[in-house]
Amino acid sequence: MAKLFLGLDSSTQSLSAVVIDLDARKVVYEQSLNFDRALPHYKTKNGVLPNRDPLVKHSPPLMWAEALDVVFGQMKKDGVPLGKILAVSGSGQQHGSVYLNDRAAAVLENLDPQKSLVENLHGVFSRKTSPIWMDSSTAKECAEIRKKLDGIKFTASRTGSDTFERFTGPQIRKFYKTEPKAYEKTAGIALVSSFMASLLAGKIAPIDFGDGAGMNLMDIRRKNWNHDALKATAPSLVKKLPLLAESGRAIGPVSSYFVQKFGLNPEALATVWTGDNPASVIGLGLIKPGQAAISLGTSDTFFGTMEQCHTDENGEGHVFGSPAGGYMTLICFKNGSLAREKIRDLYKISDWKKFGELVAQTPPGNNGGILLPWFEAEIVPRVNQPGVHRFDLDEKNAAANCRAIFEAQMMSMRLHSQWMQVAPKQIFATGGASNDLSLLQVMADVMNCRVLRIEVSKSAALGASLMAAHGWLANTGKEMNWEKLTAGFSKPVPNSEIRPDKKAAKIYGGLLEKYAGCECEALDN
Ligand code: XUL
């Protein structure tokens, strides 16, 4: 009998489902439901509720629950053999939080299949809307918590990250300060991931070590709640938080709601969910320490795996638990594709092919020319005042500026990932701009390691389905190591390997110091 596992990903704009056949090493079903289009009555834009304050970004948790009903209904309609699914896991957009009152636990245990999830959940929230990762309204709370935890270095070494506006702890503190009565009535705080897992399991689900690390509340090394962080955040918080557990671990059989309503296998295991980034790390096959991926998207993201926990003294990068054990890091550079587009448009370059050709026409190291492309306030390094800075670079030279922007982005990644103390052995490149070979050559040369292109559709939901498989195998005494489990699911694009050019790599090794100096100079001004 085929071993089928379901992975769900509740992201900002959509809920996706992936079903894998483990023995055949294949994705056998994929679906995605866009919140704005499928559930317009919530009036969200890109999954977010409108708000007069541009810093406040909330979403309705009922929308996520309704999406689960719709996605299961669609899977049934599409003939997905739900009766044969062995386990379900999932991932959620990180940091977002759901506030439940003291009725929630009982309601979850008795979900009525004659009603919809929305009808069942009526009256279980102590806060109607959920702050999500795009919210940046908690600068004050971040400063307050950071101060109580003795500054950036110690906040990061205890919880894995410095305090960030989107992180759950500062969001909880703001709720406690602005709505103390509603905070008091809150019996349980869930993350998006653990809320969705709770619906599947029919009971309050644990938070996992991956998503838990995005809260500024979990001790990153001991993997339990950090009492100093809890105390610095809000009173009586420990009573409101669920247990912490490994992602993919069995919670119990799925709620009978899904069995009776959609024909889900009554013995299917509901397992602990994680955040979308930790799940993507599994979906991309980043299992071994020293593996890394660079996603060239709207923002550029560097993902890496680490065996030992090292945290960033400067508080720029994040450390989360990896679903495969050990740790993962996430470093987000805001000026990614948007900055590259700005340069493309500035020099009236017709398309990306032409952009790549111009890069290829210029020498590695750009004769020492450096561009700092902070078109927008930057996360890494922290730049509050946007600005574009050129050093030994002629503004009129289009080709040199095309090379300079990508070299700077890669040198910044190399410089600001050094705290991990793991030099990547190979990098998977993904996202729109990874199609361009001249850019990937710069990546390989600056990082001084081989680069392979990888394109995985729905990497978070795929990672979640693999977590479900891992949890089910462990639960049935047939534990399989992660390397074997994920083999064949995320393959690099054939013939896409690019090796560093020794000469070019040497040039960048030398240039890195100059680049760091330019950053310091620009930041000082
Ligand atoms: C990570 C983060 C985002 C969300 C997106 O820290 O905030 O990547 O997880 O869903």
Provide an overview of this structure.
With 525 residues, this protein is an alpha/beta fold. The protein has 21 helices and 21 strands. Strands 1, 2, 3, 5, 11, 12 and 13 form a 7-stranded mixed beta sheet that branches. A hairpin with a 4-residue loop joins β2 and β3. The termini are far apart. The mean pLDDT is 96. The structure holds D-xylulose. D-xylulose (XUL) binds next to α14.
Question: Quick gist of this model?
Answer:
The protein is of the alpha/beta class. 38% of the residues lie in helices and 19% in strands. Helix 5 packs across helix 11 (227-233) and helix 15 (337-346) packs antiparallel against helix 17.
Alpha-beta classification: alpha/beta
Q: pLDDT average, as an integer?
A: 96
Rg, Å, rounded: 23 Å
Question: How would you sum up the major sheet?
Answer: 7 strands, mixed
Which band does the percent of strand residues land in? 15-25%
3D shape: globular
> What level of helicity do the residues show?
25-40%
Counting DSSP H or I runs of 4 or more residues, the number of helices is 21
